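ok so I'm stuck.
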Amino acid sequence: MGMEKSLGFVVSLKPLKLDSENFGYWKVMIKQAILSVDVEVWIAVEDGWSSPMFKDEKGDIVLKEKMKWTNEEKAKSKYNSQAILVIFNALSMEIFILVQGCVSAKEAWNFLEVLFEGTSSVRRTRQDNLASQFEKLHMTENESVANYSSRLNAIVQKAAVLGK
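replied:
not stuck anymore, here's the structure
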């Protein structure tokens, strides 16, 4: 008996609406929600998707009719649609309006990263600031190990979300 792909959709127990204060948390949770649908769905976010194209008799690159899509092209379209649905469902109306024109999940994901984390240079600055906070971190005299560990873990998690 082989492993079968889940045909269902995993429903989150609580809504994960994105706001400007929780992007790091939201990003981790939505990535897991997308992965829970299927790893191929997450790959659609990482690799991107665009409508299949082909070279016509004139040599021009044109959109391929959906009726002529291969099974693989249909599957990739479906994975992209599932990923973008998870992302869109986790946005407030104000943020959704900014990304509603995105055709690929990767496009929406990248837009949200830049919107909330900044460009790669801004992200590097944030990573450097976290590294500085880490270097300066020390346990105070009256602090519990649990509290110190919590402060340390917060820095580590923020750095992980920024890819450090």
